[in-house]
């Protein structure tokens, strides 16, 4: 066999060995890494785009989670976006559930959507969406209703209504026209009880009082005739609350709300009742930890049951200057024996936190208040570097930080090896321990675009200095021929 052929075979074997080692390391780290929730951080969908589902809620249908919310994509055509998941961590965008073109124009002016929620009606087989339909100035203030045959839509807009027309001293010159049209509808949410009946909660009377209204059999309007304290009720009267997030556990009805301070975050409140129509009694602010007095800089939108008695509190950290860059805040919600609830802040957390709370013998896992104990926090901090995300790009960053360097090529004179690499590879002169050596210099490195067919030639005698490759994140790619 000729010397050139032997050299080529040796190069290929060495390259294969190192690539195999690298693959094994990546595979083991991928298996080790666990998905987590990162409250208040950008949440990317499976396409790598920030999730656009603000003020939204989740429907569970046929063991699939559907997340509906306001699509604030600049220049987008969607009013409501829909995402689906089977594990609550990975969300794939289904597309536009309700388009802006389908919304009505009132007096020649367009309308927009806030806080969409969806229920499935098993009687009609329809998916029914309720939303706050509004115009600039916030005086239109109605509930928009749309339906679809499929969970992801497209939804067909049906009508805009104010479900309750009862009079409560509304002024003749009221800019919201409540005397003629009924109490305003702004922030809203849907709730389906164990008996199959559905309800809409919404801020009414210009946000001064919350209404809870039982829906008709089709979920497309209020049950009629509407009778106060029988089919609907005024709750949290004159308390100026919005952003309702109702849920139920062990026969008790819970309602998390926000104060009315515009886009500025404020202190949440959790109220409890023995009947869905109330009366509701406040149990105070459920949030604990840093910035608890502002609901961690966010506002409630939904409470998702994940297992019996176990819930996820969903909120939005609004960015009023750029609403499309607002951030979701998901946190575990803990029920206390006194009917109150707790929402402790977590920088990172995963669904296994609910399993840990099922084991009373492990007293180190939770504290009496329901917060994660210091021991658990320390353990979480030690594991965080490995479980921050399941995405490969972060695993690559971990390898860089750990200092794993892989030699892939060392060839005698005249040898040449061509190899095409992906965008996560970068080449560096030198070796891991002595990258700066007298016979190397930092000059004449040329940036290249990918994909690129890398090659090295050494026309002189001796051997080519080692080429060291390592994984990197967001670095430029350069090439240099060592002569």
Shape: globular
Number of helices: 5
Poorly predicted parts: 27-32, 359-393, 399-442, 451-477
CATH superfamily of the largest domain: Glycosyl hydrolase domain, family 43
Number of domains: 2
CATH topology of the largest domain: Tachylectin-2, Chain A
- Beta content: 25-35%
Strand count, sense and barrel status of the largest sheet are: 5 strands, mixed
Structural class: mainly beta
Strand order of the largest sheet: 17-21-20-19-18
**Beginning-to-end CA distance, first to last residue:** 27 Å
Q: Let me know the average pLDDT.
A: 79
**What is the CATH level 1 assignment of the largest domain?**
Mainly Beta
Number of strands: 28
What's this entry about, in short?
Helices cover 13% and strands 34% of the residues. It is mainly beta and 483 residues long. It folds into two domains: 112 residues, no CATH class; 332 residues, 5 Propeller (Tachylectin-2, Chain A), CATH 2.115.10.20.
């Amino acid at each position: 066999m000729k010397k050139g052929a032997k050299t080529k075979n040796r190069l290929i074997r060495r390259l294969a060995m190192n690539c195999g080692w690298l693959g094994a390391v990546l595979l083991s780290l991928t298996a080790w890494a666990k998905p987590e929730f990162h409250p208040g951080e950008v949440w990317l969908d499976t396409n790598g785009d920030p999730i656009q589902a603000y003020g939204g809620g989740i429907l569970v249908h046929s063991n699939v989670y559907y997340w509906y919310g306001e699509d604030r994509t600049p220049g987008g055509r969607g009013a409501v976006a829909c995402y689906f998941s089977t594990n609550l961590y990975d969300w794939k965008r289904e597309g536009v559930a309700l388009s802006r073109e389908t919304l009505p124009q009132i007096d020649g002016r367009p309308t927009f959507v806030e806080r969409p929620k969806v229920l499935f009606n098993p009687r009609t087989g329809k998916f029914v969406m309720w939303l706050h339909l509004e115009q600039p100035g916030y005086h239109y203030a109605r509930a928009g209703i749309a339906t679809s045959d499929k969970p992801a839509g497209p939804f067909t807009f049906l009508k805009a209504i104010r479900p309750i027309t009862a009079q409560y001293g509304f002024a003749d010159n009221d800019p919201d026209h409540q005397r003629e049209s009924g109490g305003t509808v702004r922030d809203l949410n849907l709730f389906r009880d164990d008996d199959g009946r559905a309800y809409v909660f919404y801020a009414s009377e210009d946000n001064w009082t919350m209404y809870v209204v039982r829906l008709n059999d089709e979920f497309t309007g209020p049950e009629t005739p509407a009778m106060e304290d029988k089919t609907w009720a005024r709750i949290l009267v004159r308390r100026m609350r919005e952003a309702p997030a109702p849920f139920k556990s062990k026969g008790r009805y819970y309602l998390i709300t926000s104060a009315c301070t515009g886009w500025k975050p404020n202190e949440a409140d959790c109220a409890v009742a023995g009947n869905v129509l109330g009366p509701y009694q406040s149990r105070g602010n459920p949030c604990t930890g840093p910035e608890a007095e502002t609901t961690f800089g966010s506002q409630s939108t939904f409470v998702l049951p994940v297992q019996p008695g176990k819930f996820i509190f969903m909120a939005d950290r609004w960015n009023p200057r750029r609403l499309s860059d607002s951030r979701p805040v998901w946190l575990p919600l803990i029920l206390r024996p006194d009917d109150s609830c707790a929402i402790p802040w977590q920088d990172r957390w995963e669904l296994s936190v609910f399993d840990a709370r099922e084991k009373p013998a492990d007293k180190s896992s939770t504290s009496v208040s329901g917060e994660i104990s210091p021991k658990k926090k320390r353990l979480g901090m030690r594991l965080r570097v490995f479980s921050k995300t399941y995405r490969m790009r972060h695993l690559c960053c971990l390898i860089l930080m750990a200092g794993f360097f892989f030699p892939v090529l060392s060839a005698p004179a005249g040898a040449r090896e061509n190899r095409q690499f992906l965008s996560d590879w970068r080449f560096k002169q030198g070796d891991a321990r002595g990258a700066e050596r007298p016979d190397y210099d930092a000059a004449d490195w040329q940036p290249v675009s990918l994909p690129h067919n890398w090659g090295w030639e050494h026309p002189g005698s001796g051997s080519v200095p080692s080429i060291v490759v390592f994984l990197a994140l967001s670095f430029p790619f350069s090439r240099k021929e060592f002569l």
